[in-house]
Amino acid sequence: MRKFFLSLLSFALSLLSGTSATSQIIPKTLEAKRTSQRVVIDGKLNEAAWQDAAKADDYIEFRPVIGRKEAYENRTESFLMYSDDGLYFGGTCYERNVDSIARELVGRDGFGTNDYIGLILDTYHDNLNGFEYFVTPLNEQWDAKMTSNQNSDNGGEDFSWNAVWQSAVVMHDKGWTFEMFIPYSAIRFSKDKVQDWGLNITRRRRKTEQQYTWSAIDPNVNGFLTQEGTWQGITDIKPPLRLQLSPYFSVYANHFPVNQAGQKNWTNQVSGGLDLKLGLNQAFTLDATLIPDFGQVQSDNQVLNLTPFEVKFNENRTFFTEGTELFGKGNLFYSRRIGGAPIHAGGAYDDLKAGEKVVKNPTESKLINASKISGRTKGGLGVGLLNAITRPQYAVIENSETGESRQYETDPTTNYNIFVLDQTLKNNSSVSFINTSVLRGGTDYNANVTAGLFSINNKKNNYNLSGQAAISHLDYKESGTENRTGYSHSLSAGKTSGRFTFNLSQQLTDTKFTSNDLGYFTNNNFLDHSLYVGYRYTEPKGWYNRLFYNFNASLSRLYAPIGNLESKFQQANMQVNINAQTKKLHWLGLYLNYRPAQNDFYEPRQLGQVFRRNQSVAFGGWIETNSAKKYSLSMEAYERVFLDFYDLNGLDLFVSQQYRFSSKFSVRHTVNLQPRPRGLGYTSMDEAGNPVFALRNVKTVDNTLFLKYSFTNRMGLTFRARHYASVVHNKQYFSLNDNGSLRSKPGFEGTNRNVNYFNVDMVYTWQFAPGSFLNVVWKNATYHNSDLIDVHYFQNLHNTLQADQNNNVSLKVIYFLDYLRVKSWMQTTRKGEA
């Protein structure tokens, strides 16, 4: 380890010298032009104001051919100007053949198979943070926050962020013309009298996969924002009062065939609430949700979990996905913890007395309210504060003889809090501080994690040194229970620009560190090292447009030995990948992986025991056909073979197909097959409390059908049906030896499993006004569990559909109110009355 740190120190010194070179591109500059003339957003560009706007043309290709100018017949002409109220961006995307324009209605923030043009604004000109606004030929909008910060775990583009702005598009025989108006309420900027903003404009032609930018981009250089141009001389613009309200009204009807008392069960719910956005100043925004309603979010992809670790689900609640890039730093925040499963849900069953049963046990905690403050100062200091409160939850326990009932608290009142500071530095660098806190009522423990992060790039932005150090603390309120403080750090160094890139990293976590109370955390006690080496060809040659090679290696050891176990080695991995895009715009890849014999300290489910697996080899490949075609296919096949170890093997096969019947209607079907005729792993505990392993046949099918029909660019219907089935047939049982090997356990009777989940999510959406939506949603959820293993897939599906189904129909209306628009409307009304 000493050599590792010495090498990092040497590397840091080389950063200061700024050595190494990359190709130099001179960024463009565009003069800021102001207008006071009226502009109607209709996609026609026929107002006189456009004649005086600054013209941005001479776009440069960066994909697939770097540096090539646009063909004249497919050129892009765009214009940019500003007023007292916002920005106007318009222009024409010429096409020699109108049939070459890729267009599909997919809904807001949906990429689909669309040409597009977009504006990227770095309002603080720090080369790290930007806002993006895109429009398609069918006038569908998408927007995002962008970051080039290497220290951001969810860096890149955050399309969950939404703003309210106007656009219009006109198709014609020479291509398509567009107009956009972005009000200042949809942007964050300083109060300076004269400002220069980072600026770039990008256009993409999907049928040829050509992408152009106004200010040239070299894909071999680290970062998109680091290569932006400048919009120069913006004068006397004032950040407006940003007050936006989104009140909602919702109605739910839920039906489940039988309730706990054996009676038919209909429930109804009428509710209302409010989402609020308030600009605290020119940089910071308060987002709050009062009486939140998340009943219409997409159903989770439930699975049968045979691993020792918790399943991590996607976040589908808008409040916790929109504009949360600051809170993702350090990978310490897993938003599903807020309003998740009660921490003592299982305790209700342990507390049962004779004759009692649990008749109600909430599966999630109810959120009272949540708020967040985020933004960035003129000096580059980003600040984020998120707070949420959940109410206590109770299981209801009933005595079946007397009929008396009592409550058992499964979750106390809980406050969740995250605080982040992120200071940008020169050369696309930054330092950050993050603190997460969980405060619980009653006698339950509190949890706190504090971390510091840094990311340093050299002057030429081709080398990076980054790291993180964190301390966790669990505060137990009950006497006799010792508080626990743990430590974790990571450190990495690498080359980030050029054809040849590499990264060397280390991660260390001691035996007491945990971030699981507000983050997703599987295990501590490890010391890991990893190496990445890659080489890329980013320009067309021969049969490919782009070609990438890389080699990955990792070594994982325990930080401290466990019990009487002598070995600290956990596992090692080596993998080679080759990925390419062909001239016909297909993607394909191959990979080969080798894993030597490993010690698994978690599969036994008991601390101090180990399960030893022999070495294995895995190989696979994948392909994605040109998505601009009416029919597209994505496929991946992967198999792992264990050497001299119970003849184990495992196959994963993923197939996704999509057919676009028109720009309005498309069908997509995905299936993931995991036939594991010979698998081996933990299955249960025996009577003495020792782990039992099973040699088993596991057949898993994950089958999803997705239909989409768009009536207009503001109204659409989607249908998603998913059936998941996993059948586990245990063939032979084993006990675990002290050295990690297995011995046969005859006579043990385990349980086979056949687990099925079936879900339907059908959503009708109508955007009836800017930022305002009417949603009608039907959700169906079915769960079927049995020990039948000799059934084919369609019989399994039939049995699942015959099981009790939970059906939910809801209507929700969200109306967007902007203070400035309401004020303007009221003033116009008064003038009209006068």
UniProtKB/TrEMBL annotation:
Pfam families membership: DUF5916 (PF19313)
The DUF5916 domain, residue ranges:
239-826
Mind telling me which InterPro entries this protein's record contains?
A: DUF5916 (IPR045670)
* Source organism, top-level taxon: Bacteria
Q: Point out the signal peptide segment.
A: 1-23
Entry-linked SUPFAM superfamilies: CBD9-like (SSF49344)
- Keywords in alphabetical order, please: Signal
Q: Does the keyword Signal apply?
A: yes
> Could you identify this protein by its name?
DUF5916 domain-containing protein
Its source organism is: Salmonirosea aquatica
